[in-house]
Every structure is written in C-alpha cells, then in structure tokens.
Fold:
Amino acid sequence: MKRVLQITRAYYPHIGGIEQVTRDIVHVLNGVDDIEQKVICLGDDGADGDLVRPRNQSAHDMIDGTEIIRCGSICQVASQLLSPSYPFELHRVMKQFDPDVVIFHYPNPFMAAFLLAHKKQKFKLIIYWHLDITKQKLLGKLFHGQNLSLIKRAERIAGATSMHVDESAYTPYFGDKRYILPYCIDEKRLVLTADEEERSQRIREKYSGKILGFFIGRHVPYKGLKYLIDAAKQLADDSRLHFLIAGQGPLTDELKIQAQGEDRIEFLGRLTDSEWRAYLKACDIFCFPSITRNEAFGLALAEGMYFGKPAVTFTIPGSGVNFVSLNGVTGIECPNGDSKTYAEALQKLADDPALREEYGKNARRRVLDNFTAEQFEKNIGKLLDTL
Structure:
C-alpha cells in the first residue's frame, strides 16, 4: 500500500483553481486500489449546501472518501494564510501517516517552511508548480532560499504545461526533474440537460442574427476585461457582433462605466452552472482576454473549447493559456493587451463561419485528447511510476 499526502492551500468547499486540481488528484487516486491518501490544508471560507467551513475552523473531514485535515487560519498576509495549528498537524500526519509520496502544491511559503523541517524523512516529493510568486516581489526574494531547498529535495517538479516548468524564474534549478501534468476538466459537469438545451435554443432565438462572444469569470484586473470591452467598441460598424459578459467582481462597476453607450455589450451577472452551460452552448466565440500569468492555465478556456468554440486569447509569457489554445489551430492569439488586434481577431472570426467551425472542431478535439479526467488519470499514474 502506497501512502500519498497532498499539501495544499485550501480544499473544497472553498473554491479555487489549485483547490480543484487537488480535488481532481483525490478523485483519481481514489480509483487506485493500492493507494491510501490524505490531504492537509489551511482553513479558508467555503460553503456548499450543508457543508460550511469558515476560515478559522479546524476540522478533520471525510470528503470525497478521503480524510481532509483542515487547519484553521487566523489571518492572511500577502495572500498567505497563517495557521497556528498547522505545524502541529503536519508533524502528526508526517509521523503517524508516514507518507511514501508528498505532493506539494506551490506556491505556499508558509506550508513549505514546515515541510522542509521534515526533509530528512523518507518520502518522495512532487512539487506541483502552479505559478511563480510574481505579484508579491518582496516575498519572492524573501523565500528564494526556501524555494531552492524545496526544489533540491524534490524528485519531480510537475507543471500544468511546458510553460510552467520551462519559463519559470526557477527553471535553471529544475534540471531533469520536470514533468508535464496538464489540468483536467470535469466532463460530467459539462453535460447539458434537455432543459438546458432548450434554454440554449431560446438564447439563440433572443439574439437571432447575432454572432455571440461570451466571457465568464471574475471581474479582476488579470482577466483583461477592459481590453475586451475596448475591442468591442472598435467593432461598432458591425452590428452582428454582440458580447455577453458573465460573472462579477471588484471591477464590475468600473467595467460597466467603460461599456456605457455600447449596446453590443451586455452584463449577465453571476450565472448558475445550468445557465452557464446554456450560454456556452449558444455562443459563437469564447472570449478569454486574460493578460498575466496569474491565469496559470485557463480551465474556463478549456471548458469553452470543449463546447467547440474558437477562442480569442492574448499571448501571456509563462502562462499555460497559449498551451491550452493553439494560435491558428483552435483560435487566434493576439499580442498581450493589444485591443486593436483583439478586435481584428473577433472580426475575422465573425466574417468567416467556416473558420469558426474549423477552429471549434479543433478546440474540442484538443480538449478531448489532452485535458479530460481520463487523460489526467493516465498522467498521474505515469508520474507516480517515475518515482
């Protein structure tokens, strides 16, 4: 029996990209007979139905058939959660569970510091390198030595795309430890019900004659929505194009002001999963204008591509976005932050239905070949076999 411990920032019911990847690994390993697993994480606010976990609550939960050791957090400093109980819980699980493999989800300097206290213990370390610390530059410098120690201790450095491990500031230290482990989408979550099919048809009828560009995501700076709105305004001569912007966030009011006077831009607010699926099915172009490597992969992009929608993206150095959608194959990639070129790409797709269809088919095929749960399971198995 092989014992696997995941160390991650937070876990369901808290929702986030790294949290979902951690949960995907749990689901995959649950299907392997000779693996026992646990997850240790910090507390962060989350709720799903009756399952409610506030940030300051410590708990040992059984979720997804796995013990989740949740260490209550007292505060957050520079995006880092801090928990007084974490060092003690980690020490306990490292001694009692005695993992054969530790999967550490980077970045998380607080958790890394206490893991390194156990570096002489006999376990194989996989670092899942989700992104570099770029926003908090002081933190990045402060923890440089810690990062080097973590990398030296690791057997494998896994990245969701080649960009993660080949274009990191720490790539020179990774050596031959690099491994590509793409994220996966949840295909079950993307199956439309009969009611959703009907809703999608009603959306098409409502916007009859229109070419629909669709965005969904948080309204935060790195999502690049201001460039999408600017691009849409440059297409004023084409009455066919109409843009539907779903989601909310701290920039929502500012973006609505930017879009004032432009009837082709419509804000939908927060959508349920059911509504989101219907709009994905109904749209013609998936707009994904993220601009920084905070967009480490783009699961929403992969989901849009799964529905056979051509994507319009920006070039983002060090991000996996341009690995997920391929320029001239599954969509069009534009120079970063260049709203004029972004508008031209949208116009090109609007003017060429055959190109939209070609890119859309390629997009769906790319997702099915690379980013499904089935492929993720195979990739995890190969990774563990290399240890």
User: Anything to note?
Assistant: The CA atoms of residues 196 and 278 lie 5 Å apart. The chain is about 40% helix and 20% strand. The domain at 2-184+372-385 is CATH 3.40.50.2000 (Rossmann fold).
